[in-house]
């Protein structure tokens, strides 16, 4: 049997569409096609939403300024002066951050009656030229220490050593105050700021500081300190007083 037709349905005209065909009923030609449902338009797939791609910002280049090289510390020349055998070489050696340069020579019998270190001293050598050492105070300041010879016959060197110095530490033995008079007179005439440091031999003084100031006839504007030439911190404190006095003089001179 090719087809079954209802007896009540009129026959299709020749060449026409069958009344019961899919084309007549749904308006679509027969044949395979996507299943779209009964009379519904074909479903068109909508692409999934994708946010727009925003390119990442360009990497920020941080420019680092090169650190300028640290400037070298300012050199400051300080003299360590005083009489014979008062502890000048010991003072320079106690504070110097380098091996101090010394010009020590053995004392001989020719110096008997000329170089008198005192009855308490076991000194067997003497400075015949100068002592040299240095110490860094901070990143901006460095002290260069020049120890002068104590004997009067080397006095001609003092003018050369004092050239360019900003201050001086006059070391004094309280038991032999007369040995320091030439040093104090020299710096007073030169107009160089100085500090009198009384070296405490054996941890004690022969006189108190008030009596020493009176005996030396120095004014109140001249600092008078007690220190131990063997102790690094004690020497440091005495040198800081010298530095402070030198800076004060420089400030007053600039203001004038």
**Could you name the CATH class of the domain at 89-112 and 122-255?**
Alpha Beta
DSSP strand tally = 8
Distance between the termini: 137 Å
CATH topology of the domain at 89-112 and 122-255: Rossmann fold
Strand content: 15-25%
Per CATH, which architecture of the domain at 89-112 and 122-255? Answer: 3-Layer(aba) Sandwich
Topology as a string of helices (H) and strands (E)? HEHEEEEHEHEHEH
Spans of at least 5 consecutive residues with low confidence: none
Provide the structure class.
Answer: alpha/beta
> Helix coverage percent of residues?
10-25%
Give the averaged pLDDT, no decimals.
78
Q: Calculate Rg over CA atoms.
A: 52 Å
The major beta sheet can be summarized as: 6 strands, mixed
User: Tell me, what's the shape?
Assistant: rod-shaped
Give a quick set of tags describing it.
single chain, 256 residues, alpha/beta, Rossmann fold, 6-stranded mixed β-sheet, two-stranded antiparallel ribbon, 8 strands, 18% strand, Gpn
